[in-house]
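Lab notebook, bench 4. Continuing the backlog of folding jobs that were queued last week. Each job is logged with the same field layout so the records can be merged later without manual cleanup. Today's entry covers cystathionine gamma-synthase 1 chloroplastic-like, a 310-residue chain. Filled in by technician R.K.

JOB TYPE: sequence-to-structure
TARGET: cystathionine gamma-synthase 1 chloroplastic-like
LENGTH: 310
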Amino acid sequence: MCASTVLLLALVPAGGHLVTTTDCYRKTRIFMETFLPKMGITVTVIDPADVKALESALEINKVSLFFTESPTNPYMRCVDIELVSELCHRKGALVCIDGTFATPLNQKALALGADLILHSATKFIGGHNDVLGGCISGSTKLISEIRNLHHVLGGTLNPNAAYLIIRGMKTLHLRVQQQNSTALRMAKILEEHPKVRCVYYPGLPSHREHHIAKKQMTGFGGVVSFEVDGDLFTTIKFVDALKIPYIAPSFGGCESIVDQPAIMSYWDLSRSEREKYGIKDNLVRFSFGVEDFEDLKADILQALETIESA
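JOB STATUS: finished
OUTPUT FIELD FOLLOWS
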């Protein structure tokens, strides 16, 4: 979050304008909606696939920055990085992609035309569910502007955290390879399962932006979101029946993690407020670790069996 907030404060001037997408990390959205307006900064929120809305925002406002995740959290929506970079650069706006879900291995946003790439190093880069950190990559000019403000605001990584992140990066390629493979295989199984209503994974042909993901990603990541066929309590029952994953609001580590956003990341909102952000009661976000595929498959299938058929 320190990386995100410092980046936004450094690159969007007071009274400036920012464009972002509907589906995104909740804390980033809160910062944009509640804090940035105090500096006179206005925000346009668009659907990740709505290129016309981006063009219109760039036309109407003097946009400093387009900030989005790709894939997004938790519905794994994908933005055509090459296209949005071209549109934004034409109007003098910068593009920052939060590539945390993609990992630096599966997607090279800078090579696709983005100006900056942001990662939560807490997730796949650290990879062991034991360290907090963030990182930003881009040109020396932009990074220097961000770094100067970062030195003023603080939020510095401590040496032990830096050591843990370096350690994690040594196995990043091995972990991500395994996670890509397990997630894709499991997404296909879940999509066919009668007790699963819907699966959100950019590697599936049924995904809204599969054509974009296929073009700009070499693997589709280790996180699969899906809707269980049931209500809030049926979903709680399913999550509780799982034996392998930890129940926690994180992802990208060696250990599998399961998250039910309605009662975890969005626990403080009423049902109608959650639905405004598209967070359904039966939504599950599953981060696949490096455990054996057959063990994970058996665990998920047995947990789904605890759900009574409608």
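OBSERVATION: The radius of gyration is 19 Å.
SIGNED: R.K.
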